[in-house]
Design goal:
This protein has helices spanning 3-18, 26-37, 68-86, 111-118, 126-131, 155-160, 164-174, 201-210, 221-237, 244-247, 253-257; strands spanning 57-63, 90-92, 101-106, 135-140, 146-154. By secondary structure, the protein is α/β, with parallel strands linked by helices. A hairpin with a 5-residue loop joins strand 4 and strand 5. The protein is globular and about 45 Å long. The termini are far apart.
Amino acid sequence: MTRFNFLFLFLLFALPSLAQERWQSDQYIQDSFIKIALEREYKETKHPKLIRWNRPIKLFFESESGDSELQKELLSVHAKHLSSITGLSIEFTDNLKKANMFAIFTHYENMENKVQQYIGDPEKIRAALNEAICLGTFRRNSRYEITKGTIIIPVDYAREKARFLDCIVEEITQLLGLPNDSGDVFPSIFNDVSIDTYLSPLDYILLKALYSSELKQGMDEKQTKAAFPSVLKNLHANKNIENAAQQVQFHSLKRYLGD
């Protein structure tokens, strides 16, 4: 084989692996971030603002359905994964008064009782209760800092729909400040028609962007877009975009479970 032919064959097989995925393009990342961070699934918001945590998360766990030890183990692994990506402190607490995030594993028939106990009037979130398999809600203050988050997972119903792991991964991740779902964002746990159970490389990038120093809670869409080139510049500098497919696996629930 001549040197020219060898070089041609090398480039032929190497180029596909070097090609950039669609989700790695700057414009696609920015568009995806705007859709997931600044739009809302169940609540119409005329002028949405960027929200995120600005304090350590104290996570309270309660289970009255299924294997509670396994549930807490899965929850703990994913919480540590999110902490490693965002830099947020996420720790468990048994003290209800000190907790600001609540993960409740219950029966489907008891959903409304748990909503009443941990969130408030079920009628105020009736659309979510009627449509969602599992539930996640948050509260924010006037500075657009998230101050409380609650996820309620009906273990029996989630398992029946083969969405138990999805509920753990998606709901807690959304409570960090990425509250919307969109069919336009792929691959992602925020896409209801995708098959992603675990955080995708794009989800990793969106979380990195959300907690970057270039963005501030309370930013509107125009301000977010103006700041986003700096966000992307730092993500590229740290190879967070180029190496997202590898980096998202560090400390991940997917790797922990051996999937």
